[in-house]
Amino acid sequence: MALQKDSVGPEVIKWQRFLISKGYSIDSADGIFGSKIDVATRDWQARNGLASDGVVGKNSLAKARAQGLLMTE
Q1: For residues 27-44, b (16+ Cβ closer than 10 Å) or e, as one string?
Q2: Which pLDDT band holds residue 71 (cuts at 50, 70, 90)?
Q3: What is the C-alpha separation between 68 and 32, in angstroms, rounded?
Q4: What does the alpha-carbon distance between residue 12 and residue 6 come to, in Å, rounded to a whole number?
Q5: Where residue 32 falls among pLDDT bands split at 50, 70, 90?
Q6: Distance between CA atoms of 5 and 68, rounded to whole angstroms?
Q7: How many CB atoms lie within 10 A of CB 55?
Q8: Could you give the C-alpha distances from 5 to 17, 41, 55, 60, in angstroms and in order?
Q9: pTM for this structure?
């Protein structure tokens, strides 16, 4: 499973809540991976030594899980 711009659903909500828990200013966890989530994801990736591509794939998920994200693959 990979999340990216235009993804929707409960897994996106989990990702949004994770970003909010890390201090990112996101309007709400609405389950829509829009532009604000894309920008926040790229920033989080860059801060964590990951490719800043906006795609929440295997490497991003592994790093996020180590930081407390609870999500299924």
Answers
A1: eebeebbbeebbebbbeb
A2: confident
A3: 21
A4: 10
A5: very high
A6: 22
A7: 19
A8: 16, 10, 8, 15
A9: 0.93
Structure tokens at 63: 């790093």
Q: How many other β-carbons are positioned within 10 Å of the β-carbon of residue 6?
A: 10
In this structure, the chain runs to a length of 73
Name the band, by pLDDT with cuts 50, 70 and 90, for residue 72: low
Which residue shows structure tokens 């991003």?
60
The CA–CA distances, whole Å, from 66 to 17, 35, 62, 63 equal 15, 25, 6, 5
Structure tokens given for 49: 């030594």
* Cα 72 from Cα 50, distance rounded (Å): 20
